[in-house]
Design a protein that fits this description.
The structure holds two protein chains of two kinds. By secondary structure, chain A is mainly alpha-helical. Chain A is built from 16 helices and no strands. In chain A, helix 2 runs antiparallel to helix 15. The longest helix of chain A has 36 residues. Chain A is flat and about 85 Å long. Chain B is elongated and about 75 Å long. The chains are: A mainly alpha, B mainly alpha. Chains A and B meet through helix 2, helix 3, helix 8, helix 9 and helix 13 of A and helix 5, helix 6, helix 10 and helix 12 of B.
Chain lengths: 346, 279
């Protein structure tokens, strides 16, 4: 927030319109409040969707017990009591939502422990995986885009474009399994195929086991980012002011670094955010593949065990990450776009 | 755009190398999936030798001792059909939502698109997993519905964007002035002019459908636990990766090639549409 207030007065155009003049701080607060309100509204509707998709569509008790459903009515009764199935659906929804808001995520059905206790460490593990992947991915993607834009229309550009296009459509588990085959089982035996984290230690204590999950996520995401950034770079390189800079004798390397790259930051942020948000879903498959102890692998297990409270809590966390990342991206791209900043404060 | 004679359209299509390459790759995989079950050397469930050995055809045997090559040949149809149906469902649903939102406009558009944003706050695979957690054994139509439903909001946003640029154009206004019915205007005036971007989107959605359907199989959610299915095969044979990798690698490679083909096709259509606009 402090940064926001410091940025706003730097746009003098607001002063020119006394009729609509509002203090920049108020305008920013209003804008931010509106965005936050929309994010909260979205999350509330998501909670409705999550709850009714899990509670109303199927019969969880029948799914949990499977073949035992008909033979043991006592277990049916116990489970129904555990899930509060005797109460009306709407009542159950508000109980659940109330618990969610006060930090009570319910009790796991498969091992009777509080959900928050089970997933606390896993949220951290997943956050580390996503952050490391993002830190590797951003420079790689921007680098590839710059090389590609530098050689535009020539051989290296064509080769890069074809490789990126080929990778873009391939599912992440296909990439991951090919890595496993290549680096840890069939061809070479360099890296562990699964994540080993003994005794509740974070997986980063064994960095070797994080290489393949990170590599897979980077390969899954980089093509999209690199292609968008390249397109933006080319657009900027064709613009009049870059032409002017060239005519003034500014060397091409400086043009690329100072003019093109800086202008590619905003679209870059947006596509990176979009991909980070995608990662919120992509980790489900990648964590399962590498048995990485994060919320994605946890979600797959919980779905398989029909552990409804776990599934609901994990889905809400993943959706919250998705909404949060998009919100941050919106704020950042506004801050980096002078024209948009002005539009808000005037 | 419709003034271009068909022969030159055909030439433009064949000059688009990505589109041609994508179409060839896609048709080869589709052919494999369709014809496969008939040319398979063994039965789908036939045990031809010990697990993970070189008995049977050239790819060896899987975790139960079934022939891997036969399972690859037999396992494509389910993914192909489910992905195609899911793509069709997602496209039709999304186009309807987007068209209605763009054409009706006003608060209705606002509300519809806000709800759409909520659906977009869901990673695609999550919706499928949510519902699968409450069912014992998924049916094939459930996968179609779930994958299709997860596409619809994404298609809707695109369709609305394209349609918004069209509904304000003169030919729509003149059709309205002539007193044509709204449904007729949307179907005969607006929709045909959206075909290029929507076709490209359909290619992209098909790519993602294949990925998602295969991923669900890979996660172990299958409509037929004993049946041959490329996604499920990966899951079943994972333990054999060290011994005999083909039970995993063969389906992985086929899925990879399939998605590369459909994605190339989608990209080719996009390029073609952009060139068409320039002309």
């Amino acid at each position: 927030m402090a940064q926001v207030e410091a940025e706003a007065p730097a746009t003098p155009t607001t002063v020119d319109e006394p009729a609509h003049h509002r203090s920049a701080t108020v305008a920013w607060t209003l804008w931010l409040a509106r965005r936050l309100g929309l994010a909260v509204l979205t999350l509330w509707l998501v909670s409705v969707l999550v709850f009714f998709a899990t509670a109303a569509l199927g019969d969880p008790v029948r799914a949990i017990l499977g073949k035992d459903y008909a033979s043991s009515p006592s277990r049916v009764a116990t489970l129904e009591a555990q899930l509060n199935l005797d109460q009306p659906l709407v009542q159950r929804y508000f109980d659940w939502l109330g618990g969610l808001l006060t930090g009570d995520l319910g009790t796991s059905l498969s091992n009777r422990l509080p959900v928050s206790e089970l997933i606390g460490d896993r949220v951290v593990n997943t956050a580390v995986l996503v952050l490391v992947s993002a830190l590797v991915m951003v420079p790689v993607a921007f680098g590839i885009a710059m090389i590609s834009a530098h050689y535009r229309g020539r051989k290296p550009d064509h080769v890069i474009q074809i490789i990126l296009l080929g990778l873009a459509g391939v599912p992440e588990f296909v990439i991951g399994i090919l890595f496993v085959a290549l680096f840890s089982t069939t061809v070479l035996h360099l890296l562990p195929a699964v994540t080993i984290s003994a005794g509740g230690e974070g997986p980063w204590h064994n960095p070797g086991s994080m290489v393949l999950p990170v590599l897979t996520l980077v390969f899954a995401v980089t093509p999209y980012v690199a292609r968008i950034v390249r397109a933006t770079l080319l657009e900027v390189l064709d613009s009049d002011y870059v032409e002017l800079a060239r005519l003034k004798g500014v060397p091409e390397r400086v043009v690329m670094r100072k003019h093109a790259l800086l202008n590619a930051i905003v679209p870059g942020i947006q596509v990176v955010a979009l991909q980070l948000a995608w990662l919120a879903g992509g980790i489900v498959i990648v964590e399962y593949l590498f048995s990485y102890p994060g919320i994605g692998a946890s979600l797959v297990d919980s779905v398989r065990n029909n552990d409804i409270p776990m599934v609901q809590a994990l889905s809400m966390i993943i959706a919250a990450i998705y909404v949060g990342v998009n919100l941050i991206a919106d704020i950042l791209s506004i801050l980096f776009t002078p024209r948009a900043r002005t539009a808000i404060t005037s | 755009m419709s003034a271009i004679p068909t022969t030159s359209t055909l030439r433009r299509v064949t000059h688009q190398r990505r589109l041609v390459a994508g179409a060839i790759i896609t048709s080869l995989v589709v052919l494999l999936a369709v014809v496969g079950p008939w040319i398979a050397p063994y039965g789908e469930h036939e045990i031809v030798g010990k697990p993970f050995t070189h008995s049977g055809s050239f790819l060896g045997t899987d975790y139960l001792g079934q022939d891997v090559w036969t399972r690859v040949l037999a396992g494509g149809r389910s993914i192909l059909i489910i992905s195609l149906l899911a793509t069709a469902l997602g496209m039709v649903g999304g186009i309807l939502i987007g068209l209605i939102a763009a054409y009706v406009g006003g608060w209705f558009d606002e509300v519809l698109m806000r709800l759409n944003d909520v659906a977009l706050a869901f990673p695609q695979i999550l919706l499928a997993l949510l519902v699968l957690s409450a069912v014992e054994q998924p049916e094939w139509w459930m996968i179609v519905l779930l994958v299709g439903a997860s596409h619809a909001p994404r298609v809707a946003r695109l369709a609305r964007g394209v349609a918004l640029g069209l509904v304000s154009r003169d030919f729509v206004a003149s059709a309205e002035a002539l007193g044509e019915s709204r449904i007729r205007i949307v179907l005969t005036e607006v929709l045909p002019n959206m075909s290029a971007p929507l076709l490209a989107e359909a290619g992209l959605r098909l790519t993602y459908s294949i990925g998602m359907v295969a991923a669900l199989g890979f996660l172990g959610f299958s409509t037929d636990p004993a049946g041959a299915d490329w996604g499920l095969m990966i899951n079943e044979n994972r333990l054999g990766l060290l011994v005999l990798p083909w039970g995993v690698l063969a389906p992985v490679i086929v899925i990879g090639i399939f998605t590369i083909g459909t994605n190339l096709m989608a990209d080719g259509i996009t390029q073609l549409a952009e060139k068409g606009e320039d002309a």
